[in-house]
Specification:
The structure holds 2 protein chains of 2 kinds.
Chain A: E1 2-9, E2 28-32, E3 35-42, H1 51-67, E4 70-72, E5 78-80, H2 82-103, E6 106-114, H3 117-130, H4 142-175, E7 179-186, E8 192-201, H5 205-218, E9 223-230, H6 259-264
Antiparallel strand pairs in A: 1-3, 1-4, 1-5, 2-3, 6-8, 6-9, 7-8
Helix pairs in contact in A: 3-4, 4-5
Chain B: E1 6-9, H1 12-24, H2 37-66, H3 71-95
Classes of the chains: A alpha+beta, B mainly alpha.
Chain lengths: 269, 113
């Protein structure tokens, strides 16, 4: 029998609440030592990924997260039978335990910030034109003209990056007090200034939100997306690279069903 | 259906657009379809060449900025970079590739460029 895996939890007890997962089957916990793997039975791999199936998976993970610390497992992780599942648990047990302890009582929040890249660049160009630049002198040589143009573009890009760094530094001053861990991606696109995820102690949730509101009101011209609280999708770290899982057992463990995917629908998966 | 997590924004369309933009140019798998394998390989090779070209260009700009290149050297470097860029444009045209397609997703390390 194939088992659809939702996540690893910090309990070996049965789940008291009735939770229904994919294909409407009951979700239950398979214990291993003092932790457990939460699964439901599935007849065949999911043929068609739809927004509905992604959300069903997500709903189970989030429901579990209210009562347990959970290491969410990638959408569509199917394991061939209980024995293989227990072998996998044995193989990864230490990693699972370490992560469960590290992530206990913590939540994940996502913050994305859009800035007007075109306007920022326009202003940079204006400022650079005002200043006296020691660019390579232009003459009739084609290669020198090429270098002059490239150098101007280089200066604009450099200033653009500096401005992005400055904004992110300011954000960090506010968030570092309340976030236990963070992962930042700067300028994923020219407009997407910041794509960040923060791991926050449950007790710090309201402080973290307050810090976000403070940043937002300080820079009202930028656009913000705040998401969460989520289970710690982005903060599970596996030190063990190989285990008893094989490709056929869908080894893509502990990756995340991203909030991006939730936003743009199942097509992007 | 979602129990706890919420997404709050006043500009959902803009965020969707930017996220899609970031994802669009990064295929999760190498395209090994027999009909397009040539283009898939060209894309991979050109991505690596583009990375090296950009690194060379950046290094050259840093040296110009630092004033450590003579006029003659600037001329020579400019000619080399210009020829390299023209050749890349030509190859991109042959394989029907756009600038934003020349990138690789390195998983947890992020994008190559």
């Amino acid at each position: 029998m194939k088992l659809y895996l939702y996540g690893i939890i910090d309990s070996s007890n049965q789940i008291e609440e009735s939770i229904y997962g994919l294909e409407g089957t009951g979700v239950y916990n398979i214990p291993f030592c003092d932790i457990g793997a939460v699964v439901s039975e599935i007849n065949q791999p999911i043929q068609e990924v739809t927004e509905g199936t992604v959300l069903e998976h997500e709903a189970v993970v989030e429901k579990l997260a209210t009562d347990f610390t959970i290491l969410p497992v990638r959408f569509q992780t199917i394991i061939d039978g209980r024995d293989n599942l227990l072998s996998m648990m044995q193989s990864y047990y230490k990693d699972f335990k370490d992560n469960l302890e590290r992530l206990h009582n913590k939540l994940e929040f996502g913050i994305k910030v859009i800035w007007p890249a075109d306007k920022i660049k326009e202003n940079i160009i204006k400022t650079l034109k005002k200043g006296k630049q020691k660019n390579p002198e232009s003459n009739n040589s084609q290669s020198k003209k090429f270098m002059t143009e490239k150098f101007e573009k280089y200066k604009i890009d450099k200033e653009f990056q500096t401005k992005a760094d400055k904004f992110i530094k300011v954000m960090e001053i506010f968030f570092s007090k309340f976030a236990a861990e963070k992962k930042l991606r700067k300028l994923k696109t020219e407009n997407l200034l910041l794509d960040a995820v923060y791991l926050v102690e449950k007790s710090q949730e309201s402080n973290f939100r307050e810090a976000f509101e403070h940043i937002k009101s300080g820079q009202p011209s930028l656009k913000y997306l705040f998401s969460g609280p989520w289970p710690a999708y982005n903060f599970v770290i596996l030190s063990k690279q190989s285990g008893l899982l094989t490709d056929s057992q869908k080894t893509d463990l502990l990756d995340k069903v991203t909030q991006d995917q939730m936003l743009v629908g199942a097509d992007s998966i | 259906m979602i129990a706890n997590g919420i997404v709050e924004t006043e500009s959902p369309e803009e965020f969707i657009e930017e996220i899609e933009k970031a994802q669009d140019c990064l295929p999760k798998k190498i395209d090994a379809n027999p009909k397009t394998v040539e283009k898939g390989l060209a894309k991979l090779v050109l991505t690596l060449i583009e990375l090296i070209r950009k690194l060379l260009e950046k290094q050259a700009m840093r040296r110009v900025e630092a004033g450590s290149l003579s006029d003659e050297e600037i001329e020579k470097v400019g000619e080399t970079l210009m020829k390299l860029e023209n050749k890349m444009d030509e190859l991109k045209g042959i394989f029907g590739l756009k600038d934003e397609e020349l990138n690789l997703n390195l998983g947890p390390l992020g994008d190559l460029m």
